Amino acid sequence: MKTVNTLKTIAIAILFLGFGSCSSDDDVSQAAIESNTVSNLPAPQTGGQGQEIGGDFTKFDFSTGLETTSDTEWDIAFRGTTIAINGGVSTGTADEPERNGDAAAAIATGTFASVVTAEGLVFTQDASAGYAIPAGSDNGWYNYNFMTNVISAIPGKVLVIRTRDGRYAKVEILSYYENQDTTASSRFYTFNYVYNPNLGDTSL
Amino acid sequence: MILSSDMCKYLFISVLSFIAFAKAVAQQTVIDSTATEKLEEIVLTATRTERQLSSLPLPVTLISKKNILQSGTIRLDEILNEQTGIITVSDESGFEGVQIQGISSDYILILVDGVPLVGRSAGNFDLSRITVGNIKQIEVVKGPASSLYGSEALGGVINIITEKPKTEKLNGNVSYRLGSFTQQDINLDVKKRFDKLRIGFFANRFSSNGYDLSPETGGQTVNPFENYTFNTRLYYDFNESISLFTSARYYDQTQDAGFTFEDIEYKGDSNEKEWNAHARLDHKWDEKLSTSYEFYYTNYRANERLEDPIEEDAFTDSDFNQTLIRPEIRANYKLESAGTITAGVGYQLESLDRTYFDERVDFNSQYVYGQYDVNPTEKLNVIAGARFDNHSEYSNQFSPKLAARYQLSESIAIKASVGYGFKAPDFRQLYFDFTNSAVGYTVLGYNVAVDKLNDLQAQGQILDVVVPLNELDDPLEAESSIGYNLGMTFKKGKWNSELNFFRNDFKNLIDTRIIARKNNGQNVFSYVNFDEIYTTGLEVNTSYKVSDAIKLSAGYQLLYAFDKTQEKAVEDGNVFVRDAQTNQTVAIDRSEYFGLVNRSRHNGNFKIFYDLKKYKANVNLRLLYRSKYAQFDTNGNGLIDSYDTSFIGGYVTANIAANKTFYQDFNLQVGANNLLDYTDNNIPTQPGIQGYIKLNYQF
């Protein structure tokens, strides 16, 4: 009996300690929001210009902040101007990665800093009818200029991503060209992102 | 919408009763026989009757033959560009279109002797097509004039008036001009009267070796070209009251269209041909009533064929063939002190066959118009008019106009007018079927969009349709505007000044939008009534006669031209820009929204004409200023803001010409255009300094 009572005491003590830490040291248990810039992420594709588009997407994982070749541990992926997310189903074009997560996307309008929450946004997933981040000039994130043949990220379009495992991130694409130089090679993404690693926390 | 036959009848009866009423009014009044024929500066375009320029309630610019000759201008774009508030703007193909009150070429009607010219490239009318060698005068009426002229007369009407032979002695001139870039202009103009018959013949050949603004790149900015214009006019006076006018005009231009792209030298020509046949029978029934029966036919053809000389396959092969046939009957009924009534009824048949159309497309329309021009008091002139157009392809248009002029004092008069203008959707906007082979996007005309989209869908090219297709059921609306002009004229002694405030509100402007997305990641575009824009500003013109020999003139236009939707989006803080320096995105401020492309806030001109009578010579200097303007959006936010990089800075062009007459009949002209040698690679129509020398023999 004695041992049992001792165990009880310890358990209660731990319980109190646990509560205590919760109330006094809130910040410590919550991971910090990560803010980063990714430069020159290559996004090659084959075909285009009227031909069928193909080629592997370049996948990106917000939790590591790195490009990845994993078939499961990715959130968003790039091929040419097309952006896929790891949620929903394939749109039906060649060489799309399998969607095995629960990612979703929404496009908010505002400066990057002004988008502070994912709350209230309508998230969609990739579907047979099209990508969650719509493809084509002026549909989603970019504008194609017929005069200069330059693809610009539409300023004020902030991609808000729910990651494959229910975290939130926001992305502002800065450039589609290597070293942000529109005279250099295209299909190189430079973007700012903010990632909140806390499950279900919508603040960004 | 098709006009019911009852409605047609009703309209016809209305016009008839209008004339009958006018006749009744006239019979009660005593006829004042003050003849207006002797007065100079007679304008036809503003009212379709002869009116003295200074008496008109509308803003009108009149360019005389003397002015054209002395300035040494040879094509229409050059002389128009020297007028206040008229700017020529080159589009991406290098065509020079005109802009009036900030309104672009698409919305400005170009007439020769009162009948319209056709043949536009994506809406832009290339004014350099027209030689000014046989022009009596050019009349420009600013602001909407659809009440008389129907479609396209939103921003104004430019009417080129040819000269009627007067004397029985054979007269005319022959001239040769040689200028920079081996530019050659040859004119022959012959006029003669044989009792009742008068004949005018005109021929012009114009050629240039072109020029190159960027020698570091392959090919030239403007390739060599040559063109010919022939015009024969016959006038026959059957008797005092019946006279016939006929005119046949032919224009033919061939231009080298070759260019180098990715080390392949494509070779080929582009060719333009234009025919105009115009006949008018004028019948003067009595002092009061006159009628005109007019028939007009015009055909414009353009084709361009380019091929790769090694592979021998056609790179491009495009055709464009547009025809317009228009009979019209007009009547003028003079009530003298009670005013003049003008009425007309006409039928218009247009057809276009071109590359990217399935088949030839025909439009037809019927129209009727009426105008009442009256002086209720000695100091007040009022013009009220309206026109009704019934068209086979778009909804009917009713275009009213009201204008008034009040003589405040001997030297000051006030003018005000308000009018409606419209532009019918053009063939391209309705029937285009174009897929860009390089990029893969598709543009479909509104009327064929649903069928073509179904075809694409059947071929499995469509990912999804983003617009409910029943939105395409109703016909595309005509683009329309309401224009307001309020002005003042001051005429005293050596001063002649005019001030005009203008405002034009456009709605239903047709623009492209995405209707579907394709599997290749590109879009299917079609046309939609979308934009609402406005242009507003003021224009000032002043001329001062220093002495009999020296005349100074100055002009200025202030212009604000904005898209209303974009303006609101900017005001709401919904338009952003990425600052290139900081890479930060910021909302743009209202003051950073620059407005529509190709619009300069300020335009000005200053001219000196100096007549050295003693030496039978004259010399003139014309300075033209245009403040900065933007060509296109460069930062992806869809509008022109101060962060964009496509601005062309303000610039001045100076043109100078000197004329000397010798041996009575010979005239030597020496001049230079763009004396300051201003060039910019982004203004392909502006070469550097161009000198020229011209010899003219008058007989």
Architecture overview:
The complex is a heterodimer of chains A (204) and B (699). Chain A has one domain (34-196). Chain A has two helices and 13 strands, in the order ααβββββββββββββ. Chain A has helices at 2-24, 26-29; strands at 34-42, 46-48, 51-54, 58-61, 66-68, 76-79, 82-85, 104-109, 142-145, 150-153, 157-162, 168-177, 186-196. Chain B is mainly beta. In chain B, a hairpin with a 5-residue loop joins strand 4 (86-90) and strand 5 (96-100). In chain B, 40% of the residues are buried. At the A-B interface, strand 3, strand 9 and strand 10 of A face strand 31 and strand 32 of B.
Distance between the termini of chain A: 52 Å
Residue windows where pLDDT falls under 50 for at least 5 positions of chain A: 17-28
Largest sheet: number of strands, sense, barrel closure of chain A: 5 strands, antiparallel
Radius of gyration based on Cα positions of chain A: 21 Å
Q: Helicity of chain A, in percent? A: 10-25%
Mean pLDDT of chain A: 85
**Structural class per helix/strand content of chain B?**
mainly beta
Q: Multimeric state of these chains?
A: heterodimer
Flag low-confidence runs of chain B.
1-5, 11-39
What's the β-strand tally of chain B?
39
Task: Please give a handful of descriptors for the protein shown.
heterodimer; A: 204 residues; mainly beta; 4-stranded antiparallel beta sheet; globular; B: mainly beta
Summarize the structure.
The complex is a heterodimer of chains A (204) and B (699). In chain A, 13% of the residues lie in helices and 35% in strands. Chain A contains two helices and 13 strands, in the order ααβββββββββββββ.
